[in-house]
């Protein structure tokens, strides 16, 4: 990357893109652009998806959570691209609290805390066991913020923003966990599934 060009294995010609697109025949107008991206993703990663997926979908979450897939993806990148430096720029968990949105409910974000625990543990295993070259990790996000698709409905932050009370910032359970994690490091024994 220091030359300003992607490695040859990442370069895809226009013809290769056309061939791939034509290989996926979509016969229904119900598919969207996102559907075709998902299908292409399945094609690319199907070689290492050979087991039953042990994900869970929290009641307030929109997407299934699969932390073991995070480790698998990091290892795949290491093996496929000669162990490049990897920086995780955004990793987070959003919750739509809906009618229950309040300070008390918002700061008791055990699902986000569990999500972070599992993903940090998976990343630690990728680094220590699989020898993946992860050099940076950033949580999305520090504060509840405006999301383009959701507005202020989805809360991703480690700090709850009380939009009804002068934008007061209150540390959530996940924020306390992450603060402790940064000061003490990975402790797999602290992962408690009963908090979900």
UniProtKB/TrEMBL annotation:
Reactions listed under catalytic activity: a thioglucoside + H2O = a sugar + a thiol
SUPFAM superfamilies for this protein: (Trans)glycosidases
Domain of life: Eukaryota
Subcellular location: Vacuole
EC number, as in UniProt: 3.2.1.147
Family to which the UniProt record says this protein belongs: Belongs to the glycosyl hydrolase 1 family.
PANTHER family, per database record: GLYCOSYL HYDROLASE (PTHR10353), THIOGLUCOSIDASE (PTHR10353:SF287)
Protein name: thioglucosidase
Naturally occurring in which organism (per UniProt): Brassica cretica
């Amino acid at each position: 990357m220091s030359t300003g060009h992607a490695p040859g294995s990442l370069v895809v010609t226009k013809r290769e893109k056309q061939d791939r697109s034509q290989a996926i025949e979509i016969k229904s107008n119900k598919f969207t652009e996102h559907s075709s991206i998902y299908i292409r993703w399945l094609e690319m990663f199907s070689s290492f998806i050979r087991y039953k997926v042990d994900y869970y979908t929290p009641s307030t979450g929109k997407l299934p959570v699969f932390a073991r897939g995070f480790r698998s993806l990091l290892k795949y990148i290491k093996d496929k691209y000669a162990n490049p430096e990897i920086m995780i720029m955004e990793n987070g968990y959003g919750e739509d609290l809906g009618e229950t949105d309040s300070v008390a409910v918002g700061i008791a974000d055990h699902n986000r805390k569990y999500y972070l625990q599992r993903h940090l543990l998976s990343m630690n295993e990728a680094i220590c066991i699989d020898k993946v070259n992860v050099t940076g990790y950033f949580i999305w996000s520090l504060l509840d913020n405006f999301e383009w698709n959701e507005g202020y409905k989805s809360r991703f932050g480690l700090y709850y923003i009380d939009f009804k009370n002068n934008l007061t910032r209150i540390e959530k359970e996940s924020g306390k966990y992450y603060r402790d994690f940064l000061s003490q490091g990975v402790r797999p024994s602290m992962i408690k599934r009963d908090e979900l």
